[in-house]
Amino acid sequence: MKYRERIERCISEQAGAFEDIALAIHARPEVSNHEFFACQTLSDKLAEQGFDVRVDVAGHRTGFDARYRSGKPGPTVAFLAEYDALPGIGHACGHNLFGAISALAGCALKHIVDDLGGEVRVYGTPGEEGGENGSAKESFVREGFFKDVDFALCAHPSDRHLLTTTTLANNCVKIEFTGRPAHAAASPEKGINALDAVLFVFNAINAMRQHVTDDCRIHGIITHGGDAPNIVPEFAACYFFLRAAKKPTAQDLYDKMERIVEGASLATGAAGRMYLSQNRVDNTLLTPSLDAVYRKNLESCGEQLTPVTGGGMGSSDVGNVSHAVPTIQPSLRISDGPLTAHSEGFREAAKARRALDAIPLGAKVLALTAMDLFLDPDLLQRIQAEHARALAEELEG
Question: CA 20, 328, 140 angle in degrees (round to 5)?
Fold first, then answer.
């Protein structure tokens, strides 16, 4: 039996089980660092399918590393699985589908990798939406999980079929100021107002907006501003996202923010502290020749891409992986009409029949894309060379 037919047969046989997994994860939404049910459900299924599985990896208690080694030389592919939900609204970004698609793709490729040689991995990466110990893919990169990986694949639920788009680098920073309390009317001169320091930060950022490039996005909230109007605020805090199209620009924003916090401390006398609330998120580097392989396989399944221009203005830690190895994260249509991400409509669509049908489709296209690179070492080498050039251009400027 031909390799494609073996992949399709595996997916046909396993699709129902992975659809059930997606529905079960949808019914039990879990946020970053708390995806215990989703992590166990997906990792147990991969273990059942013959993968060697470790849970609690890369410093993430709800992360997993599932591997199947053929015992013969060949490439190593990592399918990236996400399964975290959004606070309050649940699976309004479709990660219940995302994890199931990647895991099923890994299982399908496993059925032919003994013939092809190489290794299949599925990495369970928590907290893509951020939050407690969020954006786990950076931890996987930092801890060396991609040092011996040749390329990485995943697909994100959407209302359209799209190729991989650019995303913004993002530094999520928390800022805290500590002053000195006093009676705001009887003895205000004895107090040091921490809220004034926070307001200084906001005003300085608004002035800085005139002097940053158009790709920069700086947005924040005050998370604590004091306890009562008649008490000089002893403690105040704010939370900012610092986004930019390229990693070096995002770092520059971070450095400027540090100076703003230092200035606020000097101006008000409040002691300032600034720190990352989670892993840094890198922008996504594109590898068009790898997307082209995905496109060919998507069209071979009777699907068509939606034409689109421009990049995305959001952020995803898939960008961190794209700085380590050639990576794609195309969008996979799960509905027949338009959807707004992070909405109740998206959440409901993520458990509908149309979305469940997208699981075997996405898994097949990803598995076939990996198969093509396993079968054609020259193609893989060209893709890796293209990625190396993109990375060099990014670092240059």
Answer: 80
Could you tell me the maximum CA-CA distance found in the chain, to the nearest angstrom? 87
Average pLDDT estimate for 91-106: 98
- Tokens linked to 208: 């800085």
DSSP string, 85-123: -BTTTBSTT-HHHHHHHHHHHHHHHHHHHHHH-SEEEEE
- What are 312's two structure tokens? 């995305």
Phi-psi category of residue 311: left, alpha or beta, with phi > 0 → left and psi -120 to 50 → alpha: beta
What type of residue is 95? H
Q: Which two tokens stand for residue 397?
A: 């400027």
Secondary structure, 3-state, 29-94? CCCCCCCHHHHHHHHHHHHHCCCEEEEEECCEEEEEEEEEECCCCCCEEEEEECCCCECCCECCCC
- Beta strands at 327-328 and 151-153: parallel, antiparallel or unpaired: parallel
Looking at the predicted structure, is the pLDDT value of residue 291 above 80?
A: yes
- Say how far apart CA 151 and CA 153 lie, in whole Å: 7
Predicted TM-score (pTM) of this structure: 0.95
Closest CA to 180 of 254, 268, 93: 268
**Angle formed by the axes of helices 36-48 and 95-116, to 10°?**
20
Average pLDDT, the chain: 97
